[in-house]
Amino acid sequence: MSVPAAPQAGGEARDPGLQPERTALAWRRTLLALMVLDVLVVRAWFLALGRAGEGSSAHAVGLGVCVAAAAVSTAVLALCAHARSRELHHGTTAPPASVLRWATAGAVMLAGATIAVVIIER
After folding, report:
1. Domain regions of the chain by residue span
2. pLDDT single digits (tens) 62-100
3. Interatomic CA distance for residues 44 and 121, integer angstroms
4. Which SS3 state, helix, strand or coil, does residue 92 take?
5. For the chain, does the N or the C end have fewer beta carbons within 10 angstroms?
6. How many Cβ atoms from other residues are within 10 Å of residue 87's Cβ?
7. Contact assessment for residue 77 and residue 31, using Cβ atoms and an 8 Å cutoff
8. What are the start-end ranges of the E strands in the chain?
9. Cα 105 to Cα 99: distance, rounded to the nearest angstrom
């Protein structure tokens, strides 16, 4: 068995193997987990809307804002995952910094919305 040679400085491409497919699948799994989190946030909002008749409409409005933030951040992450998956099918280059910045912003926004839901629900 021989070990593949390191890429040459002349631009010789390396054999990526299954790495791009594994990375694309990891992005999809992460997106699926975030969608489940969105469903839980929406569920908390619907429960708050059901209790809104008891005088806690501000509570429901706060959760509505969290739902909107979670939906926007998940959409941003879905677009980042789609862009990265498309890039991985064409090669194994590093993702552009803009994709990483948007993905990070989406993840932070979703985490903030989730923390806000937990605080509001206390």
Report:
1. 19-121
2. 888 888 998 999 899 888 888 877 877 777 677 788 888
3. 8
4. coil
5. N
6. 18
7. yes
8. none
9. 10
